[in-house]
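Intended use. Records like the one below are meant for learning the mapping from a protein sequence to its folded structure. Do not use them to infer anything beyond what is encoded.
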Amino acid sequence: MTALENKGLLQSNMHFNIRWMMWFSLILLHLVTSFHRVSFNVVADLLTAEFNLTGAGLGNLAAAYTYMYVLMQIPGGILVDRLGPRRIALLTGLAMAVGSIMIGFAPSAAFVFLGRMLVGFGGSVVLINIFKFQAAWFRSTEFATMSGFALLISTSGALLAATPLAIAVSAYGWRTSFIAFGLMTILVAIFCLIIVRNSPGVKYGVTINRPNEESVKDEPVKFNLQAVKTVLSNRRLWIPFLINLGTYSGFVVFAGTWGVSYLVHVYGIGIEEASGFMVVAYIGYMVGAPSAGAISDRIGSRKTPAVVLIGLAALFWLALAAWPGGLLPLWLIYFLCVLLGLGGAATVLSFPMAREVSIPGYTGLVTAAVNLGVFLGMAILQPLFGYILDQGWQGLIFDGARIYPLEAYRIGFVVTFIFAALSFVATLFYRESRTGEKA
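Structure written out for the chain above:
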């Protein structure tokens, strides 16, 4: 092997190792957001007792995190494009750290609310920031794969974070746990500042060749109102937006909100057994997210895997809504929960879709715009599903909780099927561009 070949191999290994280290440091911040996403479930009773909260009061504290997510998507996307991944990683990490420490020292529920708002402010743009980094450091033919792994780690982190937090709270109390986690988050933010660079090149001291082959770098851009208007007025963004609106929201409705109640109320099984079905759905999602991204990059198509996955989600809702007699065999529901999880994973394809039909350099803004569909879908579908159940309620109460009949659930399933069908039809109109090329 010649000296030139050795030098090329060394450079290849360097940029490979460096970009993965930087990506992983940003993923650590994503795990922080996952922690805070589940933390409230662990300490809800403790906060209720500490601050003498009502159910509505506790709900408001929990919702503070989501409020900031919705409010910050578009502004956050603009900030990511303007400041770049390195500075955004520091700012978001510090915001989440301060919020966590505020919760630990909170003398009242109002301070907990402010702390949750700060955590939500920081966490709202972490995933967008990762996509911005990926656009600069990875090939377009790797973008969906990396996005799938990012969502896999987020979901698994959210599931795994509950147990360590519960152990820490039992051993040291909830206040000490939140303060300690905030201090650790500061260390992660500083680590990101030290290691992360916005893009390959010499500007930030990284003397390696750009690992991807695109002619346009996805670097920080100056704020330009006309460019922002142009990006957001792009009608082709509606398709990935609708994918998120109708698929992941349905996944959350069943696996995260009403699925356990449906199985307990209709089939008469215990909560623990019913929860096992939700675990199966989440496993389907965690398998589906990286697999969908990898397959999409491998075959050079976003549309084909998206159509298949969203079709699986629609099949899930159609089966629950239209099965003769309404009662499916429980073994079949296990299988269908896998399909629901796989269908929910179609959201991973919305982000490379959005990037490929938009102006280069605005990855943060376009991914934020389509990511808004996730939260808007949940904001619409979850209360709508609950409203449908309440309208079908026949007055039955057990242990203080309403018991809803099968007919009410089936009407709700019809509505969620309509959402999934909307996403499916929208995907059919997606005009495929060759992966790795500007649309």
